[in-house]
Specification:
single chain, alpha/beta, Rossmann fold, six-stranded mixed beta sheet, four-stranded antiparallel beta sheet, 10 helices, 10 strands, binds adenosine-5'-diphosphate, binds magnesium ion
Length: about 250
């Protein structure tokens, strides 16, 4: 079998006495959409932080394209083509959509001067094409802070695509979004995968959304991997159902 694009093996991470990830393994094959679910506090975001180099892991291995990245930091990993978005959006509210896009090209060790030079100089065509892709072209000259929350999520998604990631980790892309916009987001995620060739690992609370998106789903509970399988199996998995019921 070909090696996965992302291979997480036996990753553990504690914060003081809290074991947020306990011996977690998962793999994401190139070109696929994989889901990560689990009740609140089960360690999903922590696993994303571990994968992208936001904090060091206690033990285990994270391989991206076969290369160990668990001792690398965020910018270095991002340059390899592995990026994430956040549960809370992180756009610059007092900059326009286009400006947000222009400064979102690959992170390098550069100062603000370089960033602004880049913003002036170009990347505008690509920025506008991707804003069109997520349905925000008409809003391109508005301040990001004046967009609805769902539109800000789409902008953040487009900003990540500016980097042409090979693998994009999305933390709850439909959370807090008006139900009428959710289908639009699902559709954009699918097209980013099918048309732009971006492999996706998605944390999602909306079961209908993740069942629709992912070909394979991992479920965490109390920091441990509880189950994995195709959506239809996960939906009827008694351990998964119990974990969610137990969480409420
Ligand atoms: P999820 O994303 O599944 O809701 P998290 O990964 O955010 O879960 O959290 C898993 C556990 O780790 C929780 O108990 C949370 O309180 C704890 N945790 C996460 N990040 C930190 C941190 N930086 N410091 C201390 N505890 C943390
Ligand atoms: Mg989380």
């Amino acid at each position: 079998m070909a090696e996965a694009l992302l291979e997480v093996t036996n990753v553990s991470k504690s914060f003081g006495g809290v074991i947020a990830n306990d011996d977690v393994s998962l793999s994401v094959p190139e070109g696929r959409i994989v889901g990560l679910i689990g009740p609140n506090g089960s360690g999903k975001t922590t696993l994303f932080n571990s994968i992208v180099g936001f904090h060091p892991i206690d033990s285990g291995s994270v391989k991206f394209e076969g290369r160990e990245v668990s001792r690398m930091r965020v910018p270095q990993i991002a340059r390899l083509g592995l990026l994430r978005t956040f549960q809370q959006t992180r756009v610059y509210g007092r900059m326009t959509c286009v400006q947000n896009m222009q400064i979102s090209t690959p992170p390098r060790e550069e100062g603000l001067r370089d960033m602004f030079a880049k913003a002036r100089s170009g990347a505008t065509e690509k920025a506008e094409a991707l804003l069109e892709f997520v349905g925000l072209y008409q809003k391109r000259l508005l301040f990001a802070g004046d967009l609805s929350f769902g539109q800000q999520k789409l902008l953040e998604f487009a900003m990540a695509l500016m980097n042409e990631p090979k693998l994009l980790l999305l933390d709850e892309p439909t959370a807090g979004i008006n139900p009428t916009l959710i289908n639009g987001i699902i559709d954009r995620l699918k097209r980013a995968n099918a048309d732009l060739g971006v492999t996706l690992l998605i944390i999602e609370h909306n079961m209908r959304a993740i069942m629709n998106l992912a070909e394979h789903i991992y479920c965490l509970a109390h920091g441990q991997l509880l189950a994995q399988g195709p959506p239809a199996e996960i939906k009827d998995n008694q351990r998964v159902i119990d974990a969610y019921l137990g969480a409420h």
